[in-house]
Design a protein that fits this description.
Blueprint (H helix, E strand, L loop, with lengths): L1 H16 L7 E6 L2 H5 L1 E2 L2 E3 L15 E7 L4 E10 L5 E10 L7 E8 L5 E5 L3 E13 L11 E6 L5 E3 L2 E7 L4 E11 L2 E7 L3 H4 L7
Antiparallel strand pairs: 1-12, 2-11, 3-14, 4-7, 5-6, 6-9, 7-8, 8-14, 9-13, 10-11, 10-14, 12-13
């Protein structure tokens, strides 16, 4: 019996410690209530690659009239050519549930000119949570540790707030950042940042796959 217990204990230790292989595709959940309320002031916005001369005046935006009692959906797919010749692909899928707000409003999504972020207008708070699926492809992520990258609410006072979401995916070689089912309680600017600080401050709930 003692021999069996010893073998079982050693097997468990080996099983826990065996998965140490690095993976450039990192997924982690942002679904905890604690994370949704965290405000962080130490961070840096992830920049968009500079546009090539032919694309300097391009603005990526879309607007749609939405009846709040009916709800609706807005899908944006844009791209531009960077100065190094690479394509930068931008996607956003905003889903507005029935009863999210009263009356009919013109909803606008506009991609930031300098950073991997999206502005939403008009400024308002919702009666029901909106859901956002958003991604950028072609970013320069080599100098950003994947475990520090997150999709957040960016406040006017310079702080960021970690929002609830089903998960975030980061793929460094392709320069891809992708958020799944981000919960939006109000309109403002949402985007991608590198959070600074200790691992415990940045992510208490990282999961690598």
């Amino acid at each position: 019996m003692k021999i069996f217990s010893t073998i079982l204990l050693v097997s468990l230790i080996l099983l826990v410690g065996c998965d140490n292989s690095p993976d450039l595709s990192v997924n982690y959940s942002g679904n905890t209530p604690q994370a949704s309320l965290s405000k962080i002031t130490e961070y840096e916005l992830i920049p968009l690659p500079n546009k090539s001369p032919l694309w300097l005046d391009s603005i990526f935006t879309m607007s749609k009239e939405i009846n709040g009692s009916v709800g609706g959906r807005m899908v944006m797919e844009k791209y531009y050519i960077a100065e190094d010749g690479d394509s930068i692909i931008i996607k956003a899928d905003l889903r507005i549930p029935k009863g999210a707000f009263q009356g009919t409003k013109t909803i606008t999504m506009t991609v930031d000119d300098e950073y991997a972020a999206v502005h939403f207008y008009p400024s308002m708070v919702f009666d029901d949570t909106l859901r956002l699926f958003q991604s950028f492809e072609g970013l320069n992520l080599e100098n950003y540790p994947t475990g520090t990258i997150d999709f957040v609410f960016i406040a006017n006072d310079g702080s960021i707030e970690i929002i609830k979401k089903n998960g975030v995916q980061v793929m460094v070689p392709q320069g891809i950042v992708r958020v799944q089912n981000a919960k939006l309680l109000h309109f403002s600017r949402y985007g991608w940042v590198r959070k600074l600080g200790s691992p415990e401050q940045i992510y208490p709930d990282i999961k690598n796959y």
